[in-house]
Amino acid sequence: MRYYDNGSLFSVTVTRREVAAFNRSWPCSSLPERAITFQYDKRNGDLVDILPYSIAGKVDGPEAMALAGDAEKYGQAHRARRAFYIEIHGKRRYYADRLTVGRAVAALFRATGIVAGIFEGDRS
């Protein structure tokens, strides 16, 4: 699976191989063996869209909802690893949200005169 940040939405693409493996584990699955992308609203996790549109009518039923649920869990876990940070002399300081890191940058500037940028990325 792959996670994509789409602004107010996030998408998770389930590869063709992953769909094929899922179909083998789900008896009588009718999912087409091709990559499927699920899009979710970041605010509440609601499923917004299924891509490509050519398979949207074929992706319904309990197996599709189970796969969509797995994709959502993957996406939410990926989003939880994202964090805002400032980097000074190669060292990162992580913060939970943009407002908190903005306050930290302002305090740093007041105390030292150092201008720092705000970044978003994976915690690593």
- In terms of DSSP E residues, the strand content is 25-35%
In which order are the strands of the major sheet placed?
Answer: 1-2-3-4
Query: What is the tally of helical segments?
Result: 3
Q: How many structural units, i.e. domains? A: 2
Integer average pLDDT: 79
* Rg computed from alpha carbons, rounded to a whole number of angstroms: 19 Å
Q: Class by helix and strand content?
A: alpha+beta
Roughly how much helix do the residues carry, as a percent range? 25-40%
Spans of at least 5 consecutive residues with low confidence: none
Q: Tally of extended strands?
A: 7
C-alpha geometry? elongated
Cα(first) to Cα(last) distance is 19 Å
Biggest β-sheet: count, sense, barrel?
4 strands, antiparallel
Order of helices and strands: EEHEEHEEHE
Task: Provide an overview of this structure.
The chain has helices at residues 16-25, 62-81, 98-112; strands at 2-6, 9-14, 36-41, 47-51, 82-88, 91-95, 119-122. The chain is α+β, with helices and mostly antiparallel strands and 124 residues long. It folds into two domains: 2-80, no CATH class; 83-122, no CATH class. The protein has a four-stranded antiparallel β-sheet with strand order 1-2-3-4. A three-stranded antiparallel β-sheet has the order 6-5-7. A hairpin with a 5-residue loop joins strand 3 and strand 4. The longest helix has 20 residues, at 62-81. The radius of gyration is 19 Å and the shape is elongated. The relative contact order is 0.14. The model has no long low-confidence stretch (mean pLDDT 79).
